[in-house]
Amino acid sequence: MIRGGKKMKRICRLLSVLLVLSLILTAAGCGGQKEKPAENKDKKSGGAAETINLTIASGPAGGTWYPLGGAVAKIIQNNIPGAVVSVQQGGGEANALGVDKGMYDIGITYSHTAAEALAGKENFKEPLKNIAGLAGLYPSALQMVVRADSDIKQIEDLKGKRISPGPKGLSGETMTRLVLQVHGLKFEDMAKVERVSYSDSASLMQDRQIDMYSPITTWPAPSIQEVAQAGGVRLLPLRPEKFEELKKLNPGYTYITIKAGTYKGMEEDTPCLGSNAILIIRKDMPEDLAYKIAKALYENLDELKSVHKSLEYMTKDTIAKDLGVPLHPGVEKYYREVGIIK
């Protein structure tokens, strides 16, 4: 009985080992037949679409750029199979730097900022080599505002006056400095230079503590409208030859005319220095993907324009113009195919 018991134990151990091996082999076989997730399937082919993760750098919450970034993301996701797009808050210069370093795939910035980035000028310590143009969005103008009863008629008349070009290092301050420069002036020629926000500048103007302030913004601008209610305003005109001098300094600048009547007291059309809000893209992005993104945006312009009134300016005639940076090859290919550029 003892011998038989030992023999039975050995048989049981052997059967246990065989059972375990059988379970392992069965599990391995099932693992090899594991079905892949079907979340990103191309509806046309029925096959799985490769996931394309993209990040868009927009602007701060509460501004125009943040919802605009969300609209761009939605269009891309709805029209490019497999695209998963996230939107990050940012700012013009930071967005250019982020796209260049590959932190972002697409970014919103200004055309003059893109030109500065490409050349390594102003606040960019070295040229950015990994940014390219995707689309022009809408124009903004440097509006050099004076009260309607002011004796300041031309930009040269600002010498010895009190001005507010905006916070130091921001676009308005840089552009005002350059406008003064081509007119033979500098900040040191002013009686006083305040570097405060647009709303604070408007308050100073209303209190007659400054003579001119120069926001770069869309029009009509709420802060300028506020000043205009108390007696009217005028904008100082930028003459064509001075614009040409500025264009040589920065190819991202544009020449914009703001119509008479835009503000109370403004009786004449006024030419101003401008810059376009634009979309930039990684230059090293695959050409076919950049092509698809350009196609998706252009074919859904109406959806994009619903975000903000300023985007009414985004048309076939403006989308590839005055970007301050060359188009991405894939974007250029699409624009040529549809006749946007010749």
Strand content of the residues, in percent? 15-25%
Topology order in helix (H) and strand (E) letters:
HEHEHEHEEEHEHEEHEHEEHHH
Tell me the radius of gyration: 30 Å
What is the count of helical runs? 11
Number of self-contained structural domains: 2
Give the overall form: elongated
Text of the CATH class of the largest domain = Alpha Beta
| CATH homology superfamily of the largest domain | Periplasmic binding protein-like II
Fraction of residues in H or I helices: 25-40%
- Main beta sheet: strand number and arrangement? 7 strands, mixed
Q: What's the assembly state of these chains? A: single chain
- The residue ranges in which pLDDT falls below 50 over 5 or more consecutive positions are 1-12, 14-45
CATH topology of the largest domain: D-Maltodextrin-Binding Protein, domain 2
CATH architecture of the largest domain: 3-Layer(aba) Sandwich
What structural category arises from helix and sheet content? alpha/beta
- SS elements, strand count: 12
